[in-house]
Amino acid sequence: MSIEALLETYLDECARQGVQAEARAVASRREELVARNGAVESDGVADDTVVSLAMGEGDRRVVLANGVDADPREVVDEGVAVLHAMSAFDGTGRVGMVANAGSGQCAGRTAGSLAEVRDELLDRSRLAEARECELRSTQIARSVHFVSSKTRLTYRTSLASLLLRATRSNEDDEAVHVDSSDSGPDMRVLLDAFDTRILHNVRRQLTAPALPVARALPVRVVLDGRVAAALVWMLAESLSAEAVEQGWSLFQGRLGQTVSSDLVSVVDDPMLAGGPRCFPFDDEGVPACRRTFIDHGKLTGFLGSRAFVETVEGSRPGHARQPDATSAPRPAPSNFFIEPAETPLLLDAPTLRIVQTHGIRLANNITGEFSTGATGLVEDDGKVWRVTGLSMAGNVIDLFRGVEGLGTGLQWSVPDETEASFGSPDLLVRGLTIGR
Amino acid sequence: MNLVSPQADEYEVVRRALLRSTSVGVDSANVFIERRRKVAVRFADSRIVDLAVSRRAGSCARWISSRDSRYRAVDSIDPSTVALCVGGDSTQLTRLPTSGTAGGAIETAEDVKKLVGELDRAARDTDSRVRQVLVDAEWQEQLVVVVTLDGIVAEKRHLRYLTVRVVAGEGCRVAAGFYTPASSDPSSGLDPVQIGREAARRAVTSLAGWPVPPRRMPVVVGPGRGMVLIHEACCHPLEADEISRGSIYAGCLGQRIAAPGVSIVDDPLVPTGVGTYQWDDEGTPASATIMVEDGILRSYLTDAATAVQLGVRKTSNGRREGFLDIPIPRMSNTCVRPGDLDPEQIIANTTSGLYAQHVGGGEVVEATGDFAFRVLNGFLIEDGKLADPVQETTVQGNGTEVLLGIDAVGNDVRLGAAKCGKFSALVPVGVQGPTLRIRSLLVGGTGE
Predict the structure, then answer these.
(1) Are residues A227 and A178 in the same domain?
(2) Which of B48, B85, B252 to mutate to test the interface with A (most CBs of A within 10 A)?
(3) Rg (CA), chain A
(4) Does any domain span residue A214?
(5) Cα–Cα distance list, B343 to A84, B194, B385, B387 (Å)
(6) With an 8 Å Cβ cutoff, is A354 touching chain B?
(7) Which residues in chain A are closer than 8 Å to B367, comparing Cβ atoms?
(8) Which of B174, B364, B423 comes nearest A136 by C-beta?
(9) What is the CATH number of the domain that holds A114?
(10) Residue where a domain terminates, one of A174, A207, A240
């Protein structure tokens, strides 16, 4: 039985029992190659298909995720029973189960296989400056099928990730370690940009001499795009209509107000060319749309899904995402980024560039406070020194209010536990507390 | 919850296929087969926001040599299909409809709803400044079968994991209380009233917190979840894949790496610990591994591949998030053995410093030992007494200075739970231990 026919079977079974439903199947192939110092350490392939059935009745919803071997009738029977049981709960959830009308096949995007670039990956895992060099590469290809009473959609998508981990012993026999990553639609694309987006950064950090202890840190601070991208995650959490409705968003009651520097515009673009993610539709079947949430400092909207359209002002559907196929969809971004500038950031004074952080994902997205370990490069008149063991603390709202300059290129942070990617150019900021 | 599962001996056909597929030069091979059911509930505004029931099943075959390893994972547990796949034929992947896929979710959902409802009421009744109670509840049952060249083992594992965030507010000040109570024993009770009150207390205490200035100071870490510090700062670099990459503890077996009196054990058999199992995910029988004994490094944590690579014994630490991931050396329950001191004595003997009462997560760079971990609830220590609460902050340093700098070990052992991510794979880990004092660490805050 084809995937499409299986999904139709689920819907037919739901219709027979008088329950609204949407069915979504994601067939994934993940290829992985870990190469170390020019040799293969591990490689493998994983195939997986998950069928996710969202069933609604009244204001209740349950999501059931199974493999393709599950019996649709048993799954639907269970879903109906859970929905009925939920009606006995106090004040259970709320949903919109009215799907968009439409159908079609969207090409989305496809990607090559790691096998095609295997030799190049092995070659890239050698680095003369490093005593230890590991390159972790992953290529994921997915085929997504979505079926509701009004909608039939199919598209393909892909995600490639590279992580280079290099360690060098410096002149004092101390270990200097750099992790540098990149993500995009296809491994071929990442390898073509490897020198400029990964290797340059790694070599610069590995080979820079340590900043003398007696030398003070510059006052001017730039967050490297990779570091800033990780903080953009905190903005996304607070820009979710769900956070607004639950009363814990940092942007509660701020629609239409100035919430950041007027240099900052924050965009979500599910179809961004070259962006790590490619989602022609969201996980409720709503067509992709580029939206601006902070427009030159002014808050213009929230990430929404059908459930929040009527209750959260400024939210629009089209951003429903299942963090994984076994979870309920909720508002979340796709390629979510700060718009880069058109002209390069001019740094004509000594600058501390924060290039790595440890623990930035441990920040508090309810208060906006963050406090992390950090590694920086001090840049002064063409010379570069490395400084480790820093602490970097602040509040994300204050940080984005204090943006005084933007770089031109986007760097991406792709957390494992979400279906989102966060991007930022380099940011010249004030208001951070740097400890040493 | 009851899982309908194939019997382990049905997989003899897989074992025979594994024997046939294992060529000369392969040191070991195994097939991990799992069936997992999860009920996940998100709770906010005193109601269930959504509920998801998932059932996933699949298998992963892996062949390991001293040079490299390779794997093949598929979403099937049908013995003949898995055997075909092990034999290299994945073109005939068939996934026959399985019966008994449903059942049990309603009871689980009702259990969760009752517990979370009581938790919510307890939190809100604790203090009028509580504005929101957010709970993610995960009730999971996993049946694992591991086929090795020598035999077949099977085990059923449970996980009940709550992620509780209580938001408190006073005027324009907002603070959050974070708590992750969990258990691997489905019959052991999670006390909703205690959990709700505790999370609310943490949130309200944070409301009064002051920003701590960024400076070095003695840090006293609370028992239980506080051992995340040891997990992050000291034990990740003892995982054998990190050793093979040249971690700070590579080549240090038999050497002093911690202060006298400090003993750390990885124990996958701690009752109710969320990192507890009878067999690891490669079929190695679980047993406690003494990593550090009275300050001396005794063992690394290995899986099958790193044991072969390093030429040391397997320590039952091959763990994976699921069948789509390969096992790597991971901690189970990280246990710091108790000392003689009452925790009150440790505070009283500290002239000034930070008391990290409750901690969140952490991160470490294994090659250098540099780490950071989050202090969610902390107090300044002044003249041997707890003084003002501090805002959430981060403590950082180097793992070597932590272990060598432990100068007081309490007698108040507690067990905590966390989830640990490594190379995209998230596994539940237990942390068990007493109050500890570290001589000096960098506390990073925004205070003057």
Answers:
(1) no
(2) B48
(3) 23
(4) no
(5) 51, 22, 12, 16
(6) no
(7) 132, 165, 167, 175, 177
(8) B423
(9) 3.30.2290.10
(10) A207
DSSP conformation letters of B155-203: EEEEEEEEEEEEEEEETTEEEEEEE--EES-TTSPP-HHHHHHHHHHHH
Secondary structure (3-state) at A314: coil
Structural domains in chain A (count): 2
* B250 within 8 A of B412, measured Cβ to Cβ: no
**Same structural domain for residues A421 and A311?**
yes
Each residue's pLDDT, cut to its tens digit, for chain B (448 residues) gives 334 445 667 899 999 999 998 877 888 999 999 999 999 999 999 988 889 999 999 999 999 998 899 999 999 999 998 998 888 766 555 554 454 455 577 788 888 888 999 999 999 999 999 999 999 999 999 999 999 998 999 999 999 999 999 999 998 889 999 999 999 998 877 999 999 999 999 999 999 998 888 889 999 999 999 999 999 888 999 999 999 988 999 999 999 999 999 999 999 999 999 999 999 999 999 999 999 999 999 999 999 999 999 999 999 999 999 999 999 999 999 999 999 999 999 999 999 999 999 888 888 888 888 888 889 899 999 999 999 999 888 888 888 889 999 999 999 999 999 999 898 899 999 999 999 999 999 887 666 6
Report d(CA A302, CA A375) in Å as an integer.
Answer: 33
A173 with A279, same domain: the answer is no
A18 occurs within a structural domain: yes
Q: What span, in angstroms and rounded, lies between the C-alpha atoms of A88 and A60?
A: 11
Q: Whole domain around residue A162: which residue ranges? A: 3-207
Closest CA to A286 of A49, A102, A14: A102
Domains and CATH numbers, chain B: 8-207 (3.30.2290.10), 215-444 (no CATH)
Would you call A246 and B132 a contact, using CB atoms and an 8 Å cutoff? yes
B193 and chain A in contact, CB less than 8 A: no
User: Are A230 and A303 in the same domain?
Assistant: yes
How many other C-beta atoms can be found within 10 angstroms of the C-beta atom of residue B354?
25
> Do A264 and A428 contact (CB within 8 A), yes or no?
no
Query: Does B53 touch chain A if contact means CB atoms closer than 8 Å?
Result: yes
Task: Yes or no: say if B368 and A178 are a contact pair by the CB < 8 Å rule.
Answer: no
**φ and ψ at residue A323, rounded to 5 degrees:** -55, -35
Locate B440 and state its tokens: 């000096």
C-alpha distances in Å from residue A348, one per residue of A45, A364, B151? 49, 34, 67
Residue of A nearest to B68 (CA): A41
Helical ranges in A325-428 per DSSP H: 396-401
Of B73, B167, B445, which is closest to A47 when you measure between CB atoms?
B73
What is the C-alpha to C-alpha distance for residues A210 and A205, in angstroms, rounded to an integer? Answer: 10
